[in-house]
Write a structure and sequence with these properties.
Rossmann fold; 3 domains; ATP binding; 14 strands; alpha/beta; about 475 residues; transcription; 5-stranded parallel β-sheet; AAA_lid_NorR; DNA-binding; about 50% helix
Length: about 475
C-alpha cells in the first residue's frame, strides 16, 4: 500500500460487505478494515486515518454513535456512513451530532462510492491546508506586523512635511509651518496654487501629521471624471442602481472613513455636484447611488485647485456656501519660479533617483546645468522640472547629465538671465549695436552649450570659421573655464 494514497477506515461487521468495500477502494486508497466500533477505535488510535466509512447497523454501538465518538476524539477525520433505507430517519436525526459528511444508501454503486470518497479526501486536504495556513499566519503575524509598521514609518518619514525639499530661505518654509500647524486641527483645508506645485504631496504630509495618520488617505481628481461617474466614485452605489452596476461598490468617502480624502481640481466640478458634496460636509453622511438611506462617514476633507475660486463665485461657477465649508484654512503654494533657490535641491533629488543605461547612478548635476535650470521660469512647476530631468537622462550617453541635453526652451531662458541684457533687448537702454551684440552673444553661447562646447560644430552651425568664433568668444567673455 502506498503511503501517498488517502487513508480510509472501513467499519462493517459483515465480512463479505467489508471485503467488497476494500476491493473497490484499494486501488485509490490505503484501506484499513474493522468489524466493530472497538476495533475501529483501536486502529484510529495508532494509524493516521483521513476518512471513516462506517456501516450504521453493527453490534454494540451504531454507526452514528461511533462517528459521534470519532468526531470528539479525531475531529479532522471525514465521516461517511452507509445504511439501508430503513435506517435513514435514525441517521438524519444523528447527522448534526456526528458531523457526518455524507451517507450512502445500500446497495451502493462503485462509481458513486468512489466519487463520494474522492470528495471526502479533497475535503480533508482542504481542511489540512487551512489549518496549516492558519498556523503559519499565527507564527508569521508578529513578523508581518513589524514589517507593516516599518513600512508605515518609512512612508511617514518620506512624505512628511518636514521632509519636503526646500532651501533655508525658501518661501515654502512658511507654507510647511502652516500645514504642520493646521494638521493638528480636524478642519477642512483648501490648497491653492498653480498646477504641478506639489499640492497633493502637501496634502499627504498634512494627513501624516494629523491624528488620522494611521487611517486611509484617499485621493481623487475631480477634474478628470464626469459628474455622474464622480458621484458613484465618491459616494458608491448599490447593485442595479444603473446599467452595469452588477454589485455594490463602496465609495471613496466611505473608504476614507476615519482618515482623510483629498479632492484635487475641486474647482472643475459643476454647481449640481457641488450641492451633493455640500450635503456630505454638512450632514457627515453619504448616500450611495440607488441606496434607500444615507451612511454615516467621518473623513477629513482636503481639497486643491489651481483656479481663482473667489472669481468663480462671483461668476456663479462655484457655490459660496461650499467654498466656506472647504476653506476653513486656505494654504497658497507658491510656484517654482518664485522659489528658484529650491530648484538645485529638487533637480538633484530627481537625478539621484535615476539610473543610467549601465545601471549606475548619475553623477551630481554640475554648475552649468543648475544655472540653466535656475534661469528658466518653469510654467509647469515641479512636474515640468521632473520631466526635464527625465529627458536629460534619456538623451545622456553615459552617467552624466549635461546642459547640452536640456530642452531648447530651457537653454534659451539660460541666456536671458542677465537683467541688463534683458533691458537692452527690451529697448529700455542701449543703442542698436549694443542690443545686436547682446543678442549675438546669447545665440553663440546657446549653440556652444547645445554642442557641448565643441567649437568646430558650433562654428559650422553659426556659419563662422574657428578663428571668427574664437574672436567672438573673446569679445563677449564666453570662454569656458
Amino acid at each position: 500500500m502506498s503511503q501517498n494514497l488517502p487513508t480510509v477506515l472501513v467499519v462493517d461487521d459483515e465480512v463479505r460487505s467489508q471485503e467488497a468495500l476494500r476491493r473497490t477502494l484499494e486501488e485509490d486508497f490505503t484501506v484499513f478494515t474493522a468489524a466493530s466500533a472497538e476495533a475501529a477505535a483501536a486502529i484510529m488510535a495508532r494509524e493516521w486515518v483521513q476518512i471513516v466509512l462506517c456501516d450504521q447497523r453493527m453490534p454494540g454501538a451504531s454507526g452514528v454513535q461511533f462517528l459521534a465518538e470519532v468526531r470528539e476524539k479525531w475531529p479532522d477525520a471525514v465521516r461517511i456512513i452507509i445504511s439501508g433505507y430503513t435506517d435513514s430517519e435514525d441517521i438524519i436525526a444523528g447527522i448534526n451530532e456526528a458531523g457526518i459528511y455524507q451517507y450512502l444508501l445500500k446497495p451502493w454503486q462503485p462509481e458513486q462510492l468512489l466519487l463520494t470518497l474522492n470528495g471526502a479526501a479533497e475535503m480533508y486536504r482542504l481542511q489540512s491546508d487551512n489549518q496549516r495556513l492558519s498556523l503559519d499566519m499565527k507564527v508569521a503575524e508578529p513578523v508581518l506586523r513589524e514589517r507593516v509598521a516599518g513600512k508605515r514609518a518609512a512612508v511617514a518619514q518620506r512624505f512628511a512635511v518636514s521632509a519636503l525639499l526646500r532651501a533655508p530661505n525658501s518661501p515654502m518654509n512658511a507654507v510647511c509651518t502652516l500645514v504642520e500647524k493646521v494638521a493638528r486641527l480636524d478642519v477642512p483645508v483648501l490648497l491653492t496654487g498653480e498646477s504641478g506645485t506639489g499640492k497633493e504631496l502637501l496634502a499627504r504630509g498634512l494627513h501624516l501629521a494629523s491624528p488620522r495618520a494611521e487611517a486611509a488617505f484617499i485621493t481623487e481628481n475631480c477634474g478628470a471624471v464626469p459628474d455622474q461617474l464622480l458621484e458613484s466614485e465618491l459616494f458608491g452605489y448599490k447593485r442595479g442602481a444603473f446599467t452595469g452596476a452588477y454589485e455594490d461598490r463602496v465609495g471613496l468617502f466611505k473608504q476614507a472613513d476615519g482618515g482623510s480624502i483629498f479632492l484635487d481640481e475641486i474647482g472643475e466640478t459643476t454647481p449640481a455636484f457641488q450641492v451633493k458634496l455640500l450635503r456630505v460636509l454638512q450632514e457627515g453622511e453619504v448616500r450611495p447611488v440607488g441606496a434607500p438611506r444615507p451612511l454615516p462617514v467621518d473623513a477629513r476633507v482636503v481639497t486643491a485647485t489651481n483656479r481663482d475660486l473667489e472669481a468663480d463665485m462671483q461668476a456663479g461657477r462655484f457655490r459660496e456656501d461650499l467654498f466656506y465649508r472647504l476653506a476653513a484654512i486656505t494654504v497658497w503654494v507658491p510656484p517654482l519660479r518664485e522659489r528658484a533657490m529650491d530648484i538645485p535641491l529638487i533637480a538633484s533629488a530627481f537625478a539621484a533617483e535615476l539610473r543610467s543605461v549601465g545601471g549606475e547612478a548619475f553623477a551630481p548635476l554640475d554648475k552649468e546645468v543648475l544655472a540653466c535650470l535656475c534661469a528658466y521660469r518653469w510654467p509647469g512647476n515641479v512636474r515640468e522640472l521632473r520631466n526635464e530631468i527625465l529627458r536629460m537622462a534619456a538623451l545622456s550617453d553615459d552617467a552624466r547629465l549635461r546642459a547640452s541635453d536640456l530642452s531648447p526652451r530651457v537653454l534659451r531662458a539660460a541666456e536671458a538671465d542677465d537683467e541688463a541684457e534683458l533691458n537692452l533687448l527690451a529697448g529700455m537702454d542701449g543703442d542698436l549695436k549694443a542690443r545686436l551684440e547682446t543678442l549675438e552673444a546669447r545665440i553663440v553661447k546657446e549653440s556652444l552649450i547645445r554642442h557641448r562646447w565643441n567649437k568646430t560644430r558650433a562654428a559650422k552651425e553659426l556659419g563662422l570659421s574657428r578663428v571668427g568664433l574664437r574672436n567672438k568668444l573673446s569679445r563677449y567673455g564666453l570662454e569656458k573655464s
